[in-house]
Amino acid sequence: MVERIIQDNEAGQRFDKYLLKVLKLAPSSFVHKMLRKKNILLNQQKADGKEKLQKEDRVTFYLSDETFQKFVGIQRDMSIYEDAYDQIISDYKGPLPVVYEDEHIVVFNKPVNLLSQKDASNLVSLNEYFIGYLLKNEKISPADLDTFMPSICNRLDRNTTGLIVCGKSLLGLQTMNQLFLDRTLHKYYHCIVAGRILTPIELRGYLTKDEETNRVTISTENSKDSSYIETKLVPIQHNERTTLLEVELVTGKTHQIRAHLASINHPIIGDYKYGLKSVNQEYSKNYQVKSQLLHSYKLVFPKLSEPFEYLSNMEILAKEPAVYEKILDGGNR
Questions:
Q1: Same domain? 17 vs 103
Q2: Which of 15, 71, 13 is nearest to 43 (CA)?
Q3: How would you classify the pairing of strands 161-167 and 294-300?
Q4: Is this structure's pTM higher than 0.85?
Q5: Same domain, residue pair 65 and 30
Q6: DSSP of 149-191
Q7: Residues 11 and 137 placed together within one structural domain of the fold
Q8: 83 shares a domain with 50
Q9: What is the pLDDT of residues 121-153, one digit of tens each?
């Protein structure tokens, strides 16, 4: 016999849909047969599978251990997430900064040189760290991952730092993903660029991506494969050689901020793809800058309805790496 208690992330769905997630290798006919034969009960009562699950409902499987394990499949290896958590703590000398957390979401301040999600390199990513964080802090159990997989909701380039929103509940993940998709959750960046910008600028143009080189080009003219882009710049601080900008990403395309700034001859310091080699070499030597100084520092939520009304118009902020202040203070050297 195996018994499970329905959690928040599992509530609200049909009973048979839940069972097919748990017994993922079982045919639907087997699941419905077990319901008819009362080998699977809901709150110790016979069920037909059409019931809508509520939190704290009790599901009992009167199946042999061998049968249950056969249809559950190979158990998920929790060490993947726990090892990712431990490795990142070791690499970054402590846990990643959590700038906001509630029952539905966690927001991290991502450091440089960390992937948001796994890619072909197979390096550890923040996504695995996030699940490890939830497991280590007993915010979820291994069994919870059978029916819901927490995940990040937005991505940053490996060498871009700042705010990553993660969904720790199903409702949180779905809602945040929709906000990012609708572009109603506003994103603001800080970056340090070469040269002085003294007044606000609204940049508009067309971006074309070369999939083979993973580079983009910016043009003032529309073309067959291009996408319209818009980027707003507000200077915050400057010295004789650099400017700290607040950047509002009105549209969101690959490398948009980096390429748009390079197109007006104000590339981001440390940007080895779109920047100036001589400038990057200088700041690498003097400040150990090895990647672009681009930081997602602020998220502003729109007005939201229940159960996320508490997030309405909230601003979440993340501090830039210390090198930003050093460069702005020492720009006249």
A1: no
A2: 15
A3: parallel
A4: no
A5: yes
A6: --EESS---TT-EEEEEEESSHHHHHHHHHHHHHT-SEEEEEE
A7: no
A8: no
A9: 778 999 999 999 999 999 998 888 888 889 999
